[in-house]
Each structure stands twice: as C-alpha cells, then as structure tokens.
Amino acid sequence: MASDSDSDGDFVTFGTPLEPLEEDEPLRKPVPLYEQTVKDEKGRYQRFHGAFTGGFSAGYFNTVGTKEGWTPATFVSSRQQKAGRQNARPEDFMDEEDLGDHGIAPRQITTTADFASGRKDVIRDKARAITSLSAPIPGDTVLEDLVAPARSSMGVELLRKMGWKDGQGVGPRVKRRLCKQRADSATRAFGSASPPNGSSESQDEEDGEFVPENVTFAPKDVTPIDFTPKVDLHGLGYRGLNPLAALRGGPGAGHINLFTMDSDRTNSLFGEDRKGQRRRGGVAGQGFGVGAMEDDDEDIYHRDIMSNYDTVLGGEEPGNGLYGWTAPQQYNRKKKDHSKDAAYLGKILEGFTLASDKLETKTIFPPPNLPRDFRPVHYFRPVVDLSSVSPMVAQALQTSRGHMAQEEPSKGGRHQLDSAQRRELLGEATLQGPSSVFDLLKVEDRERLSSLRRPSSDTSSGPRQPTPGEARAAVVAAGVAAAAARASAQKALSSRFAPHAEQQQQEALSVWSGPTAQAQTGQTFKPFERTPHKQARYDLYIDQLKQGDRDALELSLDPTMTEWERGRERDEFVRAALLYKPSSSSLSCRFTRGKQDDGVEADTVEVTRDQENDVDDKQAAVKMKMFGKLTRDTFEWHPDNLLCKRFNIPDPYPGSGFVGMPKVKRDKFSVFNFLTVSESPTASASPAPQGVKPSEPGKRSRWDVSGQAGDKERKEKDPVSEFLSVARIEASGSGPEASTTDGPTTDPTVEPDTEQKEEEEEEESRPSMDLFKAIFASSSDEKSSSSSEGESEEEEEKEEGVRSKAGTGPQISNQLNVNTTQPAPPVSTTPSQHPDILFKTPSGPAAAPPPRDQEMEEEEFGPRLPPPSSTLTAERRPSPTPSAKDDKHKKKCKEKHKAKKHGKHKKDKKVRPGKTT
Amino acid sequence: MSFPQPKPEVPQLPQNLLRTIDCQQGAVRAVRFNADGNYLLSCGSDKSLKLWSVSRGTLLKTYSGHGYEVLDADGSYDNSQLCSCSSDKTVILWDVATGQVTRKLRGHAGKVNCVQFNEEATVILSGSIDGTVRCWDTRSRKFDPIQILDEAQDGVSSLKVSEHELLTGSVDGRVRRYDLRMGQLHVDFINSPITCVCFSADGQCTLTSSLDSTVRLLDKSTGEMLGEYTGHKMKGYKLDCCLSSKDTHVLSCSEDGHVYCWDLVEGSLMLKLPVGKAVVQSLSFHPSETRLLTAMEGRVQVWGAEPEETEEEVVVVQQEKA
C-alpha cells in the first residue's frame, strides 16, 4: 500500500500535521479537551464506530437522520423498474471512505492476479471462505476450487518460455563440477528443503560415470528464505504443545515430545502410527472417563512408557536396526548425518545448520583444594636463626608475635626490636668502646653508608676532624651504656615474667619521658585504633609516661575492668609503648619506593606488607647454584578484577579491595628517610676514574655481579659479626679495588676509556658536596629540604645528629633513636640548597659537569623518571640502567657516547630518593 | 634398513641460511615471528616497524608512528593487530591491514623495553625501564592501564605472557612470575640483570638469560635450576634467548656474533651459528617449524634446517620510500 518511491510527495500521511513552530511566537494555549474532536473531510464528527475494524462514520453526523431531519420517505414502488434493475455490487453500498486509501476496497492501481507473485491474496481467500460458508450450499466453492484452472503468474510463464522447468534454479547453466558443489551447499544449507531428486542425482553423479565436458546443468533451485516475522515471545524454535496432538487420544498420545527433532519423526509419531486407527471424535484421553457407549477402555489412565524415551545418546539406528557395522554405505552415511543432527538436542532452526567442527573450548582448571587448616593470610616472618640468638631474645620474639598480632597485623619482625635487643641478636658485646650505627644495618645498607661516609671522611680529613659529632657521640655513648646495663639486667631476669614486665615498664618510662618523645606529639602510633576506648586509655598512658609518671600504667587502666582484662591490657600497653617508641627505628621497612608525592605531608608511607627475604642469603645461594627455595619468594598478589576478566580467569581474591601487593602504612619519620637523602647522590655517583681518586668509594656496576671486592669480603665474614671492622675496611681498602674492577665491566667491549673518564669526572664529587650539606647544614636549612613540616625542630636535630654520625664514622653508638637527645649545634657553612638543584648543577668543590649536556639530556628525555624505592637502593648496586644497556645497542651509531650519558644521567635521576623534594 | 634405529631422529637445527633481508630501517632492535610463523616483524631504530613475509622476504607493510626507535613488537593471535613499544615511552596498537594506529598508549615514564599481547589479544602488557609493567586494555576505550605492576625494583627488560601467567625479567636480577589464577607473585632471584625470559612450550619451565653470560632453565613451580647454559657472551647488551619450537634446544644471542644452541637436557653446545661480526641483537624461533630469525645490525636473517631449493643468497628488497 505504501508507495516506495523516493520522492517525499508519495508518502502517505496520516492525521493533520502540526503547524510549523515560529521562532518568536508566544506559546499557544493548548487546545482544551472538549475541543479536541476528530472530523472527516466533510466536517462530520467522527465517532469511531467500528474503531476496531477500521473506523467509519454512519448516517448523517452519526444520526439516523438526514439533512432534512427524521422524515420518513414516502413509499415509491419499484415494480415498474424491476426489469431495469441490475445486480448490485458491493461497491454500490460503499461510500467514498471505503473506496479511499484506507478503506476496505481501495481504488488504486495494483498488480492484477496475473502478474502478482505466487503469494496468495489473503483477503481474497478469506472473503471466499466466508462466502462459501454463507452460501446456500455450504462447501459450494470446493468444486470451484477443484476445477479452477491452474494459473501461473506471468513471471512463471515467461520463465517457462525461456526454457525454465519446475524444480530448477534460475540462472545460467553451469558445468558439472560447479553444479555439484552448488548442490552440496544447497543441501547443506537447507536440509530437507531441497528437492529430493537433486541430492540423489548429485550422489549418482558423484559415484558416476564419465560425463562429457560440454554438458551443462541448470543450477539448483533455491528455496526462498521465509521472512515471516516473529511476533510471539517464545524462544527461537519453540513450538509449544500441539493441541491437536494432545487431544487426539490413543495410546501414542500419552507421551508428548516437546522437542520434536524433525518433521519425519513427527510424521512417524502422529501420522503413520495412526493410519490404521479409527479416529474418534469428541474429547478423550487422560483425565476423561469412559462413556457408557464406548466399548474400549484400554487407556484411561495415562501411562508413560520408557520406550518413548531415548535410551542411547546420539541417534537411533537408521532403518530398523537390521544393519550393524557392515551396513551398506548409504546407511552408514545416513547414520552419520543423523547422529550429527541428533547430537544437538532439539530442533535445528530453520536457516541454521550444525557447525561442522566443534568450537574449541578452553580448559578451565579449578583452583586447587585448600587444605583444611589453611589460613588465608600469611605473614612473612623474618628468619631468625634461633641457634645464633640468645634464648631470651627468641622468647621475646615469640611472645611479641603471639600477642601483638591482633593489634598490629603487619610485623616487621626484627625491625621492631629495640637496639639493645638487637645487639643481643647480633651477639655483640655490650658496649665496649664505641659501637656503630652500622651494626643495625643490613650489609647493603652498611655498604651504602660506608660509601656515604667515605667522601665525608675525605672532606673532613682536614682541620674539621674533631667535629661536634664527636661530642654528641660521647653523650650518646653514655646513654647507650645505661641502656646496655638495662639490657643485661633484663637478660638476667629473663626467665620470670613479672620482673620482666616490671623491667619493661621501666624501660618504657625511660624511653617515653625523654625529651625526644616529648617533642613528638602528632605522629604517635595508634595501635589500638580499632577500639577507641582502649586507644584513649593508651593515649593517657603515653601522656603520663611522657610526664615521667611512674605508675602511669595503673592510672591509665580502667578500674571497672576485671583483673584479668587489666592485666592483659597492661601487658599490651607496655609492649606497645616499647614497640612504638618515638622514632622507633624500623630499618629497612622505612625504605620505600619514592613514588609518593613528595609534597604530601603524610605521616606514613605505604610499604608492601611482605618483605623480601634477605638478599645475602640469596646471593650465596645463587653462587652455590642452589636455586629453588632459597632464591624464591612467593607473595600474595592481587590482580585487578578487570585483568582477570580479560584473561578469562576467575578473580582469585574476589572482593579484595586493592590490587597489587598488600600494603601497610609505616611511619614516615625515620632516621633513614634522611639517610637516604644524603645517600642518594652518592649512590648515583659513577665509578671513580682509575687513578684519579683512589680513596673514592668503589661503586660496583650492576652488570658485574660477582668477584668483586665487596663480595669477597662478604664471603669471608660472618654476616652477623664484626660490622664495624668491615665498615672500616670497606671505607678505606676496598675503594680502589672496586673501582678498578668496575671500569671495564660497565662496558667491557666497546667503551673507550677516555669517554668513561670524562663522564665520571662529571659526577665524581657530587656526593661529597651533598654530604657536606647534609652534615653541616643548619637546622633551618633542613626544614627547607625536608618535606615534613610537622616535625619538630628537636627531632630534626636529632636526625641530623644521626646523619652526621653516619657520615663521620664508627665512633658512635647504635642507640641512635633513644639516646641521642642532645641537639646538635648547627655547623653550617654552605647555603641551604635543595638537594635536587644541587644535584642538577653541582656547585661543589669538584669539577662540575658541563651544563650543556645536562640540558640537552633534559630536553631529550622529557620528564624525569619516578624515583625508585629506597629498599630498592638497598640491594641495587649503582650501575648503568637498562637505558644505558639498550643504548649500547646502537653500537654502530656515532652518538654512542651521548647515549651513554643519557643512561647515566637517567640512572642518576632514578636513584634519587622519593621522600624529599 | 633392517635394523631398528637405535635413536630417534636427531632434531634438526636451523643451520642453513635461507635468506637475508636488508631491512633498511637502521639497526634492527628486535625481530619477531607472528603467531603462525609466516610473517616477521622487524623493529627498526628509524622509528618504523616493518612486516615481512618470511618465505619470500618481501616487505608487506611499514608501520610508522613511533617517535623514537621501536624496541619490541608482538602480533595478536588472529594476525589482525600488532603492538609495538618504543623509546618514546609509548605503546602503539596497530591495525595490520591498514597500518593505522589504533591506539597509542602513554603512561610509561621511560622507554618501553618489551611488549606482549595476552592470549586473546585483550590486554597488552608492556614492561618499561621505569620498572613497571602496565596492563593495557584493548577492549575498552579507556586509555589508562588496567593495572600497573610496580614490584620490579629496576627496569623491566623482558616479559612473556602465557594463558594465566605473566613472566617478567628485571634488571634488578629477579624473575617475577605473576600467577593470575592463584593470585601469587613468585620472585626468583638470579643476582644478575635479566635480559630475556621465556616460557617453555610445555609451560613447566622458564628460561632466563642474564648478564653473567648464563642462560638458566628454571623449574616454574619450584624455582629450582634444571639447566645452565654457558659459553656465549652476554655482558652488556640486552640480548634475546629462546627455546626451540619442540623445547629440544636452548638458543641465545651472543655478543661475539654467533647464536649459541645448546641441547636442553644435556646442556652441551650443539651449534654455534656464525651470524656475523657484530652483536646478534635479537632472535626468534618459529612457533612450529625449525626456523630461526636473527637480527644483526640492519639485517634480518632467516635460518632453516635444510637449504631451500631456490638458493637466493641475498634478497635486497627495494623498499618503499618511508
């Protein structure tokens, strides 16, 4: 009906179009409801009589009257006109609406039946059926249908004239091979819809005899795709119950197969089985009784029998199971096809075929079964060799683990020990002579410290040798002696708990009442944060400790609690107070990656919870080629949910709130934050030029891993003893040796010596400069360089003292956090300089690198790399970075020298610690 | 022959030079087979990535869009996409057919050493000198990485992806294996900067080469060392190593211009393939056949088990103007 021409004028329009809106027109009032009427083109109100059949209006304005009113017409006889009366057509009774576009008998140009397509005229058929029903003899038109001439449409006629025959396809004739292929594809695509003789024919041909070359075949007929729209809401291919089949009764009807596979099966169920059976009218079957007049009552009650169900997976035997595996070929073939179809449970939808090859399914392995006693959280405890540790320390370690686990989920293990305990752990004599900070450190840390100290000893070798650090160290040593005495007393009393607790209380008091702790107000730990009351009591306890109150503990406890609870809390408080001492030095856990924004004034930094095991052990293991347990660490790691999704893997930690490694907040204020400040430029320094500065700290390359001086020394020594001597040896002895091994190994093959020297000169004396500043800068300078503003001056001074101790050497004690209460006199000489600036444009006493190079590199490399963690620096040997390594690839390129410098420079940037700006 | 053969046939080694391709794109930084081994990708230092036919040695496409030398590339399983990484800190996802940049992924703070698709090319993983591995989503429109793996303490030099695992080698001397299914990270300490890591084809072992001139075969699950292969020279360059397609041999580049090939089980040197005078920069083994690609300076060489019938010594390909 709708015209499909392109022009706009041919569109059928319904209703009245809205008036076009004008730009500056005031909003019109909406038409009130009572004025919204529908009129036809004559102005008559349309009342929508027969709205469901299309709508028409009747009479005169929906009345039975006329224009003149309700006046009965006078009778006029038509007797005389009988002869002239002709047959009335339906159109005589229609008005122009009915004959219009939307009426029941539209008057327009249509294709006549001759030219119409094969599709039947639905309306005409329906009308015919109605007339046949209402005809005087019902079924009158049946005969008419039977004798109706077989009319074919004009298109079919034309095709016939052109030589087309029924059952053939339309198109040019094709050669045999192509024809066969087409036939195959046609049968595959449309299954049983293709003409049966076609497939058999093609099979014959397949087997067949010689066919001359010049014989061509018509293409196979194509079954038109049925474009019936799907109007119901059922699933694809769902047919539902056939009411005819359900009500037909009889024994076969007891089982209703919803999933009829294909049409022939349906036929066999419902058609052929029932052929001989008399079909009864009326309602019968399950649930309906047997009438008195009926004689057979064999199947009143429904009985479903097993033979209605398939007992074998796959298809039934073709034929009647007469053939086994020796069946003739056609049975085999048929069977194969059938089994393929039947493997799919259900009807194959029209237009669909089964895939010839299966989709490859991914094998998904379930995660392994967890053992029954598996705890989902694993703490990596430090490996403490119990044999090398005094029993008291071992016991203390174990008790602290057991009790503190609930307050502090993450344990740094050895880092929570205080220095006296640590000394016990290290098996060191209690403070005979000056001990060193180095005792506390791991070997790498020590190494870095020593490399840090060497330049300082270089610079301070002159008249400044008796530094104020010496005086401070003396004071510190006194404090250390006291602590050591305490520790020894503690050792003596170790077996019994009560005096032990007493001892601890004393210790806590002494620790917290010091001026260092007094100054530290803001950043105390809150170990009992989860229970605010407890935390409040703990705070009270700490406050009183700070005031030096002896019975602080008893005062702060809640008297309403039971004795047991109080005892427990007392124990916890004392432990917590000892563990969370002001600036308790957790060593390596403080070294974190410098990823954090330096400007943020956060008290804590995030550190991965699980720390790696000792690198020394691993190195030893690697040297002995004992890979495996010793060199492997396994951590918990949370992949992103989306990443799991993309990898088609279930999230191993569903609902975990974070990704990556579990992180833990650690105190940011630590001595070692500052140590890394002054250390980092040192670390970034490149190897010393050979012969130029023999006392320069040996910077080992990352590329050469073994056979170095440090390693040799490490082999000799016991890792837990004589740190002091080693540090001294390293400070003086190993420097040149390392540097000599170093030069060639950085770039053994291609690097000319001159180049290396050049670039090394560029960086050689930066560390000393920075250290100079780190040691002798006044506290006000410190503030500018440290990002932490909440820090008190006193503490800064303390840190400074420690730093200077780290620089000046082994004459100070290891009690760096507790006892260094004496503020250091500022010994400033250099103007305050940002480490960064200082790093970029060194103004130190040594030769400065050409600034042109630096700028160039900046340009080329854009923003600087994020600084790596300081734990990283702990085990990283300063060396060329991969950039340098990769740059070496341009061996043939002429700018290799430049590239090398990029590498160095980038590495310098990388090693810069993150915590300072 | 009347006697049964005493030993199964010795697996063949790619010792015959089939073809030399002069890539004309500066130094070739890396050469890679595609997923089925019919094509090869060469990463040039002139910022271009080139796709070649292995069998004919003809240039098929040049992909230009990087701002600095291309360091690594990978092809998706269906050959419809490529990814490449470069010194310009970007990772680019390419459409193979059109040669257009589908996506340019920025975020790394340093040059990107290695890049890999995952199995279904839904994620690109890239390891950079900044010490991070970034997981980029190719499905969504987001340009941020799904996850950043920052466990490495130094630059990530090599990276491989299996079905559910991610193997990274870092300059901090550690091989990290991220097991997505178990949610675990296994760190193996090698104590020397890692230059290349590989999974074996059976997925049970990992191969790592490091700058102590050693290639090590480690058991994946326990980290124990199964084999150690030495003799080559790898001291300063990031060179590749790989396993043969049947896991029978271990191959490694060397700085002395050879490719070393060891028997995997015995650890004995089976073949020392002379490639040239310079450093063998990169190599790649065919996923199914005995075919090897090596890259030295500006050339890519294709090696096979037996010489081809049509012996073309050098195919100098006229290259389109880049």
Automatic annotation (TrEMBL), chain A:
Gene Ontology CC: one annotated term: nucleus
GO molecular-function terms, A-Z: RNA binding
Gene Ontology terms describing biological process: mRNA processing
InterPro entries noted in UniProt: DUF1604, G_patch_dom
Biased composition (Low complexity): 452-461, 680-689, 740-749
Family from the record: Belongs to the GPATCH1 family.
Protein name per Swiss-Prot or TrEMBL: G-patch domain containing 1
Organism this protein belongs to: Oncorhynchus kisutch (Coho salmon)
From TrEMBL, chain B:
Location(s), subcellular: Cytoplasm
InterPro entries reported for this sequence: WD40/YVTN_repeat-like_dom_sf, WD40_PAC1, WD40_repeat_CS, WD40_repeat_dom_sf, WD40_rpt, WD_repeat_MORG1
Taxonomy, superkingdom: Eukaryota
Keyword set includes Zinc-finger: no
WD repeat residues: 21-62, 63-104, 105-140
Keyword Isomerase attributed: no
GO terms, biological process: mRNA splicing, via spliceosome
UniProt xrefs under PROSITE patterns: WD_REPEATS_1, WD_REPEATS_2, WD_REPEATS_REGION
Keywords, in A-Z order: Cytoplasm, Repeat, WD repeat
Family matches, as Pfam families: WD40 (PF00400)
GO cellular component: catalytic step 2 spliceosome; cytoplasm
SUPFAM superfamilies: WD40 repeat-like (SSF50978)
PANTHER family: WD REPEAT DOMAIN-CONTAINING PROTEIN 83, WD40 REPEAT PROTEIN
Family, similarity comment: Belongs to the WD repeat MORG1 family.
The protein's name: WD repeat domain-containing protein 83
Organism: Oncorhynchus kisutch
Gene: WDR83
